[in-house]
Amino acid sequence: MPEALAATRLGVLGWPVAHSRSPQMQNAALASLGLDDWRYQALPVPPELFPQTVRGLRGAGFRGANVTIPHKEAALALADLASERARAIGAANTLSFSADGAIHADNTDAPGFLAALPEIPRPGSRALVLGAGGSARAVVWALVAAGVQVAVWNRTRPRAERLAEELGARVTDDAAEADLLVNCTAVGLASSGGELKDLPVSAEYLSTYATVVDLVYRSTPTLVLAAAARAGCTTVDGAEILVQQGALSLEAWTGLQAPIEVMRAAVRDA
Ligand code: NAP
């Protein structure tokens, strides 16, 4: 296959992945950039087929792929090269395939999260992160790297203890005072259920946080963001984080500046 014809395919690997808005967002961006022969598609792959599928992607014309639940750790494990932040976070959401077959792993969730905030948090400011899963690891790593003092709460405490020890945060059992609150739990995701009472922050107490971020995104405001907006907080929607992490992945694959507004509109309309 001549190189000029190769590697114009992109995708998102997940299981399940049908709910992802990345295909609409990235295809709108590719069209806007005039990359008419590029395509981005959902790639539903069960965990047992993940390594062999990824190794075959370059030969099938793929330049790169995003990775979502449940493959982010496996993606890092099989990469030949990984960025420092992907290694520190312990998970990759972006794979790039070079012509010699090498697989490079990165994590754009962390810088995408920071880019979605109204302003970069000041060193020494405080954040409370709810959750200790994959997205919490990226968020905590990004905040600690920015010099923020991070407290982590999680329903399953030992998981929070591991994360805090590895990434330089502390564990809290309640709603620690902070400037920034970030929900990295699945509470509020329609398919996962959960209610605000499953989290340590009451609707009334939310007003003590200047900015509230919810990683969860859906077409109507999430439980956390609806309550935070009522409490007068500045709110950041998970959809904006999706856009920002996707923009960084797209730029890595194409070398072109991502059309952020086009991507935002595509996510909104998806
Ligand atoms: P994950 O690794 O599966 O972690 C899930 C987290 O949610 C864990 O901390 C879990 O606590 C907690 N949790 C689940 N149900 C709960 C409940 N009823 N009450 C309290 N805690 C609960 O998932 P993830 O990758 O971190 O993703 C978390 C959320 O962020 C998902 O909704 C995902 O869609 C969203 N996300 C959005 C973006 C974006 O670009 N906007 C990127 C990544 C993820 P335990 O440890 O106790 O189980």
Automatic annotation (TrEMBL):
Top-level class of the enzyme under EC nomenclature: oxidoreductase
EC number: 1.1.1.25
Keyword Transmembrane helix: no
Alphabetical UniProt keywords: Amino-acid biosynthesis, Aromatic amino acid biosynthesis, NADP, Oxidoreductase
Domain Quinate/shikimate 5-dehydrogenase/glutamyl-tRNA reductase positions: 125-170
Cellular compartments per GO CC: cytosol
PANTHER family: BIFUNCTIONAL 3-DEHYDROQUINATE DEHYDRATASE_SHIKIMATE DEHYDROGENASE, CHLOROPLASTIC, SHIKIMATE DEHYDROGENASE
Protein name: shikimate dehydrogenase (NADP(+))
Protein's organism: freshwater metagenome
